[in-house]
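Milestone 3.1: sequence recovery, worked example.
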């Protein structure tokens, strides 16, 4: 399966610019036959935007319909982080739209990071799984992927591919460099990690977006600037997959 990741500066509240960037990336990804494009956390309206509640959107909003149309036009699926307004609350969410524009998954971040996120968002309450090209997949968002119990739970449920919109910032360079590949290798799952680059307000993003296979090999890796990553996800070599799930002994 061929996958794509957009690493980009934050749209910083410009919803039209955010949608245009996604549309262009979907067209580029589709031109090389990628099945899914993943973009960063809260890409609508921008992770560190000053007015997240004012920029939050519903799942039936004009912006979402615009992106559904782009998926239909290109035949490429989209995983996108966004601030979701629903049930009178705001959630840090990720949606997956398939190549027809249909919503196949909507996930709400479990591990809200720091006092700002905890003040802005309601916490999610469960995992969401779905199928991509015959593989069982799931969504996590940024800080979620740093918690081994979440990755373990998904692996135990048969998930083989985890999409992770993120907004990892300085000084946490160890997350893309070490944590994400280790999580992939230790749990035998492929991880698609889409981060920002550049600065937004008082944050400087680390970049380091990647597509990492289930053995921990980084198949495509961005630096600290804008990038569109493309990589073919290989079939896993079962003789090399981690056997931790079967071998773990509780003390």
């Amino acid at each position: 399966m061929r996958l794509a990741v957009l690493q980009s500066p934050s749209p910083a509240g410009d919803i039209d610019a955010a949608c245009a960037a996604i549309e262009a990336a979907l067209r580029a990804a589709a031109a090389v036959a990628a099945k899914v494009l993943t973009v960063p956390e809260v890409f609508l309206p921008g992770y560190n935007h000053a007015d997240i509640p004012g920029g939050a959107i519903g799942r039936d909003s004009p912006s979402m319909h615009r992106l559904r149309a782009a998926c239909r036009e290109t035949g490429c699926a989209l995983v996108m982080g966004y601030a979701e307004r629903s049930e009178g609350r705001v959630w840090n969410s990720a949606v997956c739209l398939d190549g027809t524009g249909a919503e196949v998954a909507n996930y709400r971040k479990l591990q809200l990071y720091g006092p700002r996120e905890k003040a802005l968002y309601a916490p999610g309450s469960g995992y969401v799984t779905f199928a991509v090209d015959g593989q069982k997949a799931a969504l996590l968002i940024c800080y979620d992927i740093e918690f081994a119990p979440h990755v373990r739970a998904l692996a135990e449920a048969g998930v083989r591919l985890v999409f992770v919109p993120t907004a990892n910032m300085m000084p946490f360079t160890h997350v893309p460099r070490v944590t994400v590949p280790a999580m992939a290798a230790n749990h035998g799952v492929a991880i698609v990690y889409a981060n920002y680059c550049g600065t937004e307000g008082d944050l400087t993003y680390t970049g380091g977006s990647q597509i990492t296979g289930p053995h921990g090999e980084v198949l495509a890796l961005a630096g600290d600037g804008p990038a569109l990553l493309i990589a073919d996800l290989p079939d896993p070599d079962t003789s090399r997959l981690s056997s931790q799930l079967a071998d773990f002994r509780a003390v």
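The chain has one domain: 2-232. The helical segments are 15-31, 52-55, 62-74, 114-120, 148-156, 174-187, 244-247.
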